[in-house]
Design goal:
By secondary structure, this protein is of the alpha/beta class. The protein is 28% helix and 25% strand.
Length: 159
């Protein structure tokens, strides 16, 4: 089975094409499971890789989109987004909430409705690369379009 035929990848492709027909999913020969691997595969700055991190926030889930060269700050998430309780979601929670496995979590196409927050440090790049439902699949998008397609809230959420 081709990677683009996998259901999670098709879900991402359908959403990004509906948003902008010029966007498309690319299949990499090497893994993009981590930001470092993705940057190496794409020959780009590791900061241009969008990490999609699912956190449990006050008994619900929120997705945080963070530059590949940065770390999420639980303190800033609590302070700036006003959550009192924040913890990383487990691999099972990630799969059941987003419909994706860790390493392939896309900023779009989640199976459950979740709030999305985008770290402003991603603004420094002309183009970003985000996972597209599988560790070897990505899509390229501008910061502005990422905020539009995800309806994400921009903030300061990194260490």
């Amino acid at each position: 089975m081709m990677l683009k035929d996998k259901e999670p990848v098709k879900r991402v492709e359908k959403i990004i094409k509906k948003f902008d027909e010029n966007l498309s999913v690319s299949v990499l020969k090497t893994s993009a499971r981590t930001a470092l691997e993705a940057a190496s595969s794409l020959n780009c700055d590791v900061g241009a890789i969008v990490k999609s991190l699912l956190f449990k926030t006050d008994n619900k889930y929120s997705l945080f989109l963070i530059a590949g060269d940065k770390k999420a700050s639980l303190k800033k998430i609590k302070k700036n987004i006003k959550f009192s309780d924040v913890s990383m979601a487990s691999a099972d929670e990630v799969k059941s909430i987003t419909g994706y496995s860790i390493g392939g979590v896309s900023p779009v196409g989640h199976i459950k409705n979740i709030n999305i927050y985008i770290d402003k440090s991603l603004e420094r790049f002309d183009f970003l690369f985000a996972a597209a439902g599988h560790p070897n699949c990505i899509f390229k998008i501008s910061f502005l379009d990422l905020t539009k397609i995800t309806k994400g809230v921009i903030g300061d959420i990194i260490e």
